[in-house]
Every structure is written in structure tokens, then in C-alpha cells.
Amino acid sequence: MTLNAAPTDLTGKTVLVTGAAGGIGQSAVAHFAALGATVYATDIAADFSGPATYQQFDLLDDDGLSACVDWISEIAPDILFNNAAIFDMGSILDGGDLAQMDRLFGVNVRGFYAVMQATAKAMVAKASPGSIINLASQAGHRGEALVAHYCATKAAVISYTQSAALALAPHNIRVNAISPGVIDTPMWETVDALFAKFENKAPGQKKREVGRAVPLGAMGTPDDVARAAVFLASDQSAYMTAQTIGVDGGNVLR
Ligand SMILES: NC(=O)c1ccc[n+]([C@@H]2O[C@H](COP(=O)([O-])OP(=O)(O)OC[C@H]3O[C@@H](n4cnc5c(N)ncnc54)[C@H](O)[C@@H]3O)[C@@H](O)[C@H]2O)c1
User: Fold this and answer.
1) pLDDT per residue over 19-32, tens digit each?
2) Choice from 61, 83, 105 to test ligand 1 binding pocket (greatest atom count within 8 A of CB)
3) Cβ–ligand 1 contact at 44 (below 6 Å)
4) 14 strand-pairing partners
């Protein structure tokens, strides 16, 4: 028996966090840094404050994406927290047009994939173990009439997680995803405002409703997601790959 009850120590590990200026990203940066990792962070945001070396890249822009890919090959992270994404609403009959599809798939799938691919190649080149953590969503497990494209992007994240995990397993690189439920972050300002428009709700109403509907009784916090990421980054999850873990208070039963 190997009993390992020691606190997670990421000293000597290099971590890359995308979407680092957002709610979940900031918490992930703080958690990884507090556990001793050297953290690199990127976002489209001009300003970032946190215990990380920061570079601004727009993953929707070809030049930005290619500069980010070059940066990743220099960093060669041991751990990737692949988190940047955008949300928008629309159904097949109302608002779910091709322009919205291009934007959402551009960031949430194309940008996400390019970051994962660059990281995987750098990890293989340095021939040491790695852990890739992709941000999916409960929305990736079930379509929603008014959230067609976003749900499809997150289903794609789950599928790419599985394919990448199988391709990278021989290199001792694990790839898993986290599916958050409803987490109280700046993204919810957009989500709540869009539901107010599409479902004729008062501002704040959708957010209150989804919080009350969670079996554990409330929205989650960015720290709830970051703690799951720490587990997937560490050797505590050494025998896990190709999995998608729900951090959703019981919203989705698998
Ligand atoms: N908050 C939730 O309830 C929830 C639920 C399920 C899944 N998620 C997922 O968790 C992850 C983090 O979400 P969050 O709630 O912290 O959102 P957030 O909006 O607070 O953070 C997302 C970050 O991504 C960045 N970003 C957006 N477009 C970008 C681009 N073109 N290039 C580079 N960076 C870009 C944003 O600037 C932002 O800082 C996302 O993948 C999201 O889909 C969130």
C-alpha cells in the first residue's frame, strides 16, 4: 500500500493558465502558485494581476493564436489549465447564426485545441509527465434550445479531451476535463443578461433561479473548480485520464 496523505506540492512544476483574468482562471492561478508552481498566465484582457508571468493574446485572432502557440513551446508547461471561453445564446430559429457559431467555436474549440496541441507537443518534446485540464461545462452534456452553439463547443471539449488522452497516454501525459455547473463568475453577468432578454426575466432572476435549483443549494465558487484542478494536476489523480469530472453541486448525474 502506498499511503499519500501529504498536501499537494507543485514545486518545480510549470503551469499555464488561459482565461487567467476571468473568475475561475484567477482562482486557478492563485491555487497553483500557492502550491509552489511557477505559473504563466494569458488572457485577452489588457490588465492582469496575480502571482504569474502574464502575456496578452487574443485566441480568436490568427496572429494572436500563433504568437500564443510560440510562447507555449518556449514555456513547455508540465500542467495546462485550458480555460478561456466565451458564452452567447441563440437557438436554431433565433440568434444561433453562423457568425455566432464562428465566434464561439473560434475561441472555445479552435483556440482551445491549438493551445492543447501546442502544449502536448512541448510536453512530448521534453519527455516528462504532464497533466492537461480542459474546461468543459454541464452544457456540454445536454443540449439546450437557447444555447445551441455554446453547448456544442463544450461537447467538443469533452470529445477532444478523450481523443487527446488516448493519443498522449503512451507519453505519460494525462488529459482530463472539468464540467462546472453554475459558478459565480463575471461570465454570469453575460449569461444573466442574455436570459433576461431571451426569457423576458428581470435582471438577476436567472442567476437566483439556477442557484436555488442546484441540489447542494447554491451556485459554486471559482475555488470549487480550482480545487478539482489541483487534484487533476497532481499525482493524486495519477491513474486518471480521459475523464470529465463534474463540479456542479449535483446538477448532472452521470
Ligand atoms: N461560470 C460558469 O458558470 C461556468 C460553467 C460551466 C463552464 N464554465 C467554463 O469555465 C471556464 C471559465 O469561465 P469563467 O466563468 O471563469 O468565465 P470568465 O468570463 O470569468 O473568464 C473567461 C476568460 O476567458 C477570456 N477570453 C475570452 N475570450 C478570449 C479570447 N478571444 N482570447 C483569450 N482569452 C479570452 C476572458 O477575457 C475571460 O477572462 C470557461 O471555459 C467556461 O466556459 C463556466
Assistant:
1) 999 999 999 999 99
2) 83
3) yes
4) 38
